Amino acid sequence: MEKRIEKVLFIVVGAWLFGAIGVDRFMRGQVGLGVLKLLTAGAFGVWTLIDLIIALTKISSYDKEFIFVDGKWQK
């Protein structure tokens, strides 16, 4: 079974809901910055707000959607 998730929605919601604990950086593959953001609680919200703005401005550069087939991510 194939399931499609829109990347823009996934990234913006991830940055908004989980930005303070660094999940948005982990999703981008930036593990070191994700850990740093987790330990500083998003630099008390400032870093979280900046990352949300970055995510919103880079929306046009993302591919349209993630595709999952039988629970596995496909490129």
Overall mean pLDDT stands at 76
The general outline is globular
Helical stretch tally: 5
**Separation of the first and last Cα atoms:** 16 Å
Main sheet specs: 3 strands, antiparallel
Strand content: 15-25%
- How do the strands of the widest beta sheet line up side by side? 1-2-3
Using the CA coordinates, give the radius of gyration.
13 Å
Structure classification: alpha+beta
Q: How much helicity do the residues have?
A: 55-70%
Spans of at least 5 consecutive residues with low confidence: none
Work out the number of β strands. Answer: 3
Q: Name the quaternary structure.
A: single chain
Order of helices and strands: EHHHHHEE
The structural domain count equals 1
Characteristic terms for this protein:
75 residues; 3-stranded antiparallel beta sheet; alpha+beta
How is this structure best described in words?
The protein is of the alpha+beta class and 75 residues long. It has one domain. The chain contains five helices and three strands; from the N terminus they run βαααααββ. The chain has a three-stranded antiparallel sheet. β2 and β3 (72-74) form a beta hairpin. α1 runs antiparallel to α5.
